[in-house]
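User: Sequence in, structure out. Go.
Assistant: Echoing your sequence, followed by the structure tokens.
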Amino acid sequence: MIYFFCMRVNKYLALCGLGSRRHVESLIIAGRVKLNGQIITNLATTIPTDATVTVNGRPVTPPTDKVYILLNKPDGVVSTTYDPQGRRTVLDVLRDNPKQYQKLLQTVRLYPVGRLDYHTTGLLLLTNDGDLTKKLTHPSTHVDKVYLATVDRPVTKQELDTLSRGVSIDGVMTAPALFEYVKHDRTHIQVTIHEGRNRQVRKMFATQDLNVVTLTRVQEGKLRLGNLALGDWQFVRKSQII
């Protein structure tokens, strides 16, 4: 599955490289666009997956190259492409490099793979590869995610063992995980989980009356954050991910 399809015709044509949204809307209104041989003038028309779209009689399709971007998500950014509350999104972070991002927009429509909560920083993958997204996010694949957490008091060995065995959050037990000290510092904990439940790491610590001060994801699957600076991003290969 590729995320180019099942979208409104104006977005579809823009992804095909036919110009700005305003320009492609003028093509539609002028009756120069056909969907499966029928002229369409309604801007809300949705393009299904098996459709044939032509402009001035010539078939058009979006590029299908797969793109993979590793982003070091900053604090105070939502892991979505749009936020109705007007908060800063991961795409806004990409736009901080306008020249590179605008070139990217001409070829792909990106979506984040899973989410990091508003105040969690670190590794977030963005791609147009729907198959990979499904593989990374489906519970059955058990892809490890590694976090570095700073908590508000020293964690006992007993508490680490309890968290590693699994705890009940929102009425459901978590799967076994790995909680371990970072360089024997009992307030800095490395956490390895393979689930992706909402705010899971923070909620797990909360069951032991521990508050997370900072939380950063440093690895997902084979992909590592490395030395990528906060707010920066880079292209990666699929072979680096899984």
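User: And one key feature?
Assistant: The two ends are 18 Å apart (CA to CA).
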